[in-house]
Design brief:
The complex is a heterodimer. Chain A is an all-alpha fold. In chain A, about 75% of the residues lie in helices and about 0% in strands. Classes of the chains: A mainly alpha, B mainly alpha.
Chain lengths: ~325, ~300
């Protein structure tokens, strides 16, 4: 891909990003009730002058379009206002929580791929077999299981009944890993604490499996379909005709090409990964962005909710952008055009 | 399912309208018919809730607190699926909960479908500024994952049944709109549309009496497939405590309520969980076999 197309694609992101901020802004602007009154709550010591000043500080006296302009101007500099509850900048609160969410998302994606790719591949190779039918059925049924229910069932079996894994949280109470990157798995290794690493990993297993299995349903189906198509290609027939071993044909020739569509599907599926992370974080008391978003909703912490929602949307947009590029990089046929 | 798709494809069809052949194809897919029947069963159960629910879904008694299902020691057939932490009959709450889930699923898909169809027709047929404006709106909303958009809106509007419907419709119309626009672009230059223009029919008339009937099957199919998604989203919102509010029985809330008692009384969360699973599965499979029968072009 030429630099020119890359820049063109990047520029195409601008209107979408602007639109997304507009939606987030309007969500808040049309909220019933006065933000200042909600901020103050039941504090009776606030004078009318102070209220007036807060209104001015928030720019609430300005017309809507000017408020939006200010909102975007501030957003560009990373200023999304103060979290009512934390009394700290919203961006600070959210960025602090982001590593936990990313760690969970990556782990879930790995779980999903570890289930989906082998299962989808075997189903494709043994098309029509019992294994294939089981995989197809699971991939249809898997989508219908709400992941909050799955999470609860997993907690009951593996944490409460069997006691193999912790019930919730990201670390055992008392374990303190000084923050470097915010990614606890990385930080525990940086501090040379393999014991802490194992503990963090143990806490990660159930949430990642909860989120990952739901995701694997769709990926399984895509891997299977894509593999079936790839196996019918001439170059696979040619590789077989050359006398290569079935294993080599499968792994060296077919698999790499069959996985290309998966990139796009993963990016699209990132929407359900992000949505699912909100629910999973709530069930497992995982200290990520999703959990703080729900806390924000229940405490009517509007700037926090607005920014968290925006943050998820921006991550989603950027991931899709990256997938577009990756798709072109992986697929020489498109690159040539 | 491949066989059914192929037989539908073999029939020469000039348009996406619904034919008797479609119906025959649909009925020959036994698996699909079975799940469609289950889905319809849920709908009947929801409609008849006041008459078939054995108890008042909100009448509790601490004497029956966490009473197990009938087949377990301590259970009774008067409360077949047991009782929750307030001694309310779980079966009755599931039957009433079906009302909430299906009502929201169907109403959202219908309203959003109507809005999306109209805007999609306008964008696809008229083009120009209308198309640009609508398409940009679609692009922007699609940049949000549905649940996150809904959580944001619910956070601003507050919980409640009406607000869920509003929040979900605000997003959901995009799905139909995108489909209808693409399909409209597809048929816009067909002879019958040109003929209608030539005899001077108004754009509105062409959109609704010439184009719409020819794309309606695709719209119905996609709408059916979306019902399951909407039901899961509603259940998620209710589970998170920002959806349907107590004491209205909703499956998501029931699962959340039973969570703390999972070890002592697994039935409180499990039965509503199974209900969601069955309903969504049957809605999805019914939608899929409808798609294979009525619009094989959409089969991926």
């Amino acid at each position: 891909m030429s630099l020119r197309t890359l820049i063109e694609r990047l520029l195409q992101l601008v209107p979408v990003l602007l639109g997304v901020t507009l939606v987030a802004f309007l969500m808040m602007a049309f909220t019933p009730g006065d933000p200042v009154e909600i901020m103050i709550g039941n504090d009776e010591h606030v004078t009318p002058e102070q209220i007036e000043r807060m209104r001015r500080d928030l720019g609430l006296h300005l017309p809507l379009h000017e408020r939006y302009f200010h909102y975007v101007a501030n957003a560009v500099t990373g200023d999304f206002g103060l979290s009512f509850y934390h009394r700290r900048p919203v961006s600070e609160v959210l960025f602090e929580r982001l590593p936990a969410t990313i760690e969970l998302a990556i782990a879930s994606l790995l779980v999903a791929l570890a289930i989906a790719v082998p299962a989808g591949m075997i189903a494709a190779v043994r098309r029509g077999s019992i294994f294939d039918r089981v995989v197809t059925t699971i991939s249809v049924a898997g989508v219908a299981i709400p992941n909050f229910f799955l999470g609860i069932v997993l907690i009951m079996f593996f944490a409460v009944n069997l006691g193999w894994l912790p019930v919730s949280g990201q670390t055992p109470s008392g374990l303190n890993i000084p923050r470097v990157t915010g990614f606890l798995l990385v930080d525990s290794l940086l501090w040379g604490r393999p014991d802490a690493f194992v503990e963090v990993l143990r806490h990660l297993v159930l949430p990642a499996v909860t989120l990952g299995t739901g995701l694997s349903a769709l990926l399984m189906r895509v891997t299977r379909t894509s593999m079936i198509e790839t196996l019918q290609q001439d170059y696979v027939a040619f590789a077989v005709a050359k006398g290569l071993s079935p294993r080599r044909v499968l792994f060296a020739h077919a698999l790499r090409n069959a996985l290309i569509p998966l990139v796009t599907v993963i990016a699209i599926d990132l929407g359900s990964l992000l949505s699912g992370s909100i629910i999973t974080e709530t069930i497992f008391s995982w200290p990520g962005v999703g959990r703080v978003l729900i806390e924000g909703v229940t405490t009517r912490n509007y700037p926090l909710v607005q920014t968290a929602v925006l943050m998820f949307a921006v991550i989603y947009i950027l991931a899709n952008f990256l997938a577009d590029i990756l798709y072109v990089v992986l697929n020489p046929r498109i690159r040539l055009k | 399912m491949t066989a059914t798709a192929a037989s539908a494809g073999a029939v020469p069809r000039a348009s996406g309208s619904i034919t008797r052949q479609n119906l025959r194809t649909f009925l020959s897919d036994r698996f699909g018919v079975l799940f469609t029947a289950i889905f319809l069963g849920f709908i009947v159960m929801a409609i008849l809730a006041p008459w078939i629910a054995p108890h008042d879904p909100n009448a509790g008694s601490l004497l029956r607190r966490l009473q197990p299902p009938a087949w377990l020691p301590g259970g009774s057939w008067a409360y077949p699926l047991g009782c929750d932490s307030l001694g309310r009959d779980i079966l009755s709450r599931i039957i009433w909960g079906a009302r909430v889930s299906i009502f929201i699923g169907v109403v959202v898909v219908l309203i959003a479908g109507a809005i999306g169809t109209f805007l999609g027709l306008v964008a696809g047929f008229l083009g120009g500024i209308a198309d640009t404006a609508i398409s940009r709106m679609v692009d922007v909303l699609l940049a949000y994952p549905l649940l996150i958009f809904a959580i944001g809106l619910m956070g601003m509007m507050g919980p409640g049944l009406m607000n869920i419907i509003v929040a979900l419709v605000c997003f959901e119309w995009v799905i139909t709109c995108r489909l209808v626009r693409a399909q409209t672009l597809d048929v816009r230059n067909k002879e019958y549309v040109e003929a209608a223009q030539a005899i001077g029919l108004s754009p509105l008339r062409i959109m609704f009496s010439e184009i719409l009937p020819n794309i309606v099957s695709a719209v119905i199919v996609v709408a059916t497939l979306r019902v399951g998604t909407i039901i899961i989203i509603e259940a998620s919102l209710s589970f998170l405590g920002i959806g349907v509010q107590p004491p209205t029985p909703a499956w998501g809330t029931m699962i959340a309520d039973g969570r703390v008692f999972m070890l002592a009384a697994w039935w409180v969360s499990s039965f509503p969980g199974i209900a969601i699973f069955l309903l969504v599965l049957s809605a999805n499979l019914a939608g899929q076999s409808l798609r294979d029968a009525f619009d094989p072009r959409l089969t991926r």
